[in-house]
Design a protein that fits this description.
The structure is a single chain. The radius of gyration is 19 Å and the shape is globular. The strands form two sheets. The protein has an eight-stranded parallel β-barrel, surrounded by six helices. A two-stranded antiparallel sheet has the order 5-6. The chain has about 325 residues and is an alpha/beta fold.
């Protein structure tokens, strides 16, 4: 099973994340994922760099580790044709090292830029448009596409990699899992393992079957939160930054990080550990990975909120990877 490192633009400046990506590759991580937000999940002390220029710099800084977004929503601010162009450019410059992950997004990425925040069924329909547009543009042909929301008018990618950049779809419910089964090379989820096994896998397999695809060829990926420190209390304190993501649902039309932070601060400290694995024992990270491997995942990407990221990466290199 592969293990990825998540470079969180919300929590660190882009230049710092470049250092983290280099450390992750040196430590033996298989991939580096990065967030693609306009606003972060917190206000105080937060950052929010742009994913795509950062990916170009990070791929150039490193040698072989795979990189991509996790996730990019094609809801309003991104036309899927542009996303295909971004991915194709990185794929042609860094063969075999790029991926693109599409999802239905969050309001924080759309409303600040003046776009509407539609309900999930509408966002799912736009996601389907995006997947179809991506696949058609990757053929290298001129493409006309009259979609539900997104369209193409004799569009063509003139710069393409020799092999298509893998397209992943992320989601935590059955409808997004079905889209992944129909169109994607991989499925990323944050859902609990039990939900994944009992609800999402059947939906993914159904989507693949309806599209005449082999569901076993769809890579299974999970994002898991981890906060590690020598002292448990320090690891728990470091989770506070992400409590906003616990307090606001993905479907809510909340886009102001000040409001998100205010809601997060209402979550009692005793509940912060529900965000993910909070530990002072790195062997628990190894056990977490083993549970996911047993559940059939092909990759786990670790979003570390550890107070010392360099220390977390070093511990992973010594005792896990």
């Amino acid at each position: 099973m592969e293990v990825g490192f998540f470079a969180a633009h919300e929590q660190y400046a882009p230049s710092t994340l470049l250092d983290h990506a280099e450390l992750a590759e040196d430590a033996g991580f298989d991939s580096v994922w990065t967030s693609d937000h306009f606003h972060p999940w917190w206000h105080t002390g937060a950052h929010c760099g742009a994913a795509w220029p950062w990916l170009g710099a990070a791929l150039e800084r490193t040698d072989s580790v795979r990189m991509g977004t996790g996730v990019t929503p094609p809801v309003g601010r991104y036309h899927p044709g542009l996303l295909a162009q971004f991915a194709a450019t990185l794929g042609s410059m860094y063969p075999g090292r790029a991926h693109l992950t599409l999802a239905t997004g969050e309001a924080m990425n759309e409303r600040p830029l003046g776009f509407e925040w539609p309900d999930y069924p509408e966002r799912r329909a736009r996601l389907v448009d995006a997947c179809r547009i991506y696949r058609e543009l990757m053929t290298g042909e001129f493409v006309d596409y009259d979609g539900h929301y997104w369209n193409l008018d004799d569009a063509k990618l003139y710069t393409r990699p020799d092999e298509d950049v893998p397209l992943y779809v992320a989601g935590n419910g059955v409808h997004s899992a079905e889209v992944a089964g129909r169109y994607a090379d991989g499925f990323l989820t944050l859902a609990p393992i039990e939900t994944y096994e009992t609800e999402l896998v059947p939906a993914l397999e159904a989507g693949a079957a309806e599209a005449g695809r082999d569901p076993s060829e769809v890579k299974r990926i999970r994002q898991a939160g981890v906060s590690y420190a020598d002292e448990y209390a320090d690891a728990l304190d470091a989770v506070e930054f992400w409590t906003g993501s616990m307090a606001v649902g993905f479907d809510e039309a909340v886009a102001d990080p000040r409001e998100i932070e205010s809601r997060g601060r209402e979550i009692p400290r005793a509940e912060w550990s529900e965000w993910g694995l909070v530990t002072d024992d790195v062997t628990e990270v190894r056990e977490l990975l083993a549970r996911h491997e047993d559940a059939g995942f092909d990759e786990v990407e670790l979003l570390s909120s550890s107070p010392n990221q360099e220390g977390f990466v070093a511990a992973m290199a010594d005792d896990v990877l």
